[in-house]
């Protein structure tokens, strides 16, 4: 078992949900872009809150996470909510990403080191059908300052945090339907609570 798997299995081992059971607020705000019958991928979905919500909107959903404990809780949450998801266990860095399978990739708080991030964002684009969308929210580099006084979470390494310049470079071949920096109040379980510096994007793959 990898170090990442051990870390997240320990974090998800309790009965509670570390980031709550409700969807990310930015993802929910993009509900108008969703249509029943679409296929969605939620990489790094942990305990399943975003994938389950997408399934509740009538989408066919696959989730992928390194944590077996997270995937088990995601399946249980889906059953409780009366929906079905395909919850896979894999390290995204090594996963055999599909190509042109999905209409939506929901990338919420997935943080990669700068050395890996461009390749992972390319894999997300490649997984989309032409015209498909990535809905993304990440912590900005400024989150390092918020961490000093808040419990709003995020990596503590600058090269795992995001910026407008990084996203514009990674998705240079795509179209930004939305790209904004914001300071928000998070209330997502006990791990994302308080003021936070985030960046949000909706990226469309070329037709």
Provide keyphrases for this structure.
7 helices, Rossmann fold, 7 strands, 207 residues, alpha/beta
Can you give a write-up of this model?
By secondary structure, the protein is of the alpha/beta class. It has a single domain (3-204), classed as Vaccinia Virus protein VP39 (Rossmann fold), CATH 3.40.50.150. The chain is built from 7 helices and 7 strands. The protein has helices at residues 3-11, 25-29, 49-56, 68-81, 117-127, 143-146, 164-170, and strands at 39-43, 60-65, 86-89, 102-108, 128-139, 175-188, 192-204. The protein has a 7-stranded mixed beta sheet with strand order 3-2-1-4-5-7-6. The radius of gyration is 16 Å and the shape is globular. The model has no long low-confidence stretch (mean pLDDT 90).
Secondary structure blueprint with pairings:
Layout: H1 3-11, H2 25-29, E1 39-43, H3 49-56, E2 60-65, H4 68-81, E3 86-89, E4 102-108, H5 117-127, E5 128-139, H6 143-146, H7 164-170, E6 175-188, E7 192-204
Parallel strand pairs: 1-2, 1-4, 2-3, 4-5
Antiparallel strand pairs: 5-7, 6-7
Helix pairs in contact: 3-4
């Amino acid at each position: 078992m990898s170090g990442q798997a051990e870390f997240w299995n320990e974090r998800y081992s309790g009965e509670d949900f570390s980031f709550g059971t409700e969807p990310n607020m930015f993802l929910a705000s993009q509900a108008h872009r969703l249509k029943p019958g679409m296929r969605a991928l939620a990489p790094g979905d942990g305990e399943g809150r975003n994938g389950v919500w997408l399934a509740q909107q009538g989408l066919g959903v696959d989730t992928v996470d390194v944590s077996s404990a997270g995937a088990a809780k995601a399946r249980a949450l889906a059953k409780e909510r009366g929906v079905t998801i395909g919850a896979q266990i894999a390290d995204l860095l090594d996963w055999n990403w599909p190509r042109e399978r999905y209409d939506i990739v929901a990338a919420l708080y997935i943080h990669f080191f700068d050395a890996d991030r461009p390749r992972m964002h390319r894999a997300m684009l490649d997984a989309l059908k032409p015209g498909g969308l990535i809905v993304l929210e990440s912590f900005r580099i400024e989150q390092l300052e918020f961490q000093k006084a808040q419990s709003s979470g995020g990596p503590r390494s600058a090269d795992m945090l995001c910026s407008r310049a990084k996203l514009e470079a990674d998705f240079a071949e795509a179209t930004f339907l939305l790209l904004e920096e914001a300071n928000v109040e998070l209330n997502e379980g006990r791990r994302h609570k308080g003021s936070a510096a985030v960046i949000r994007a909706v990226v469309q793959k070329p037709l």
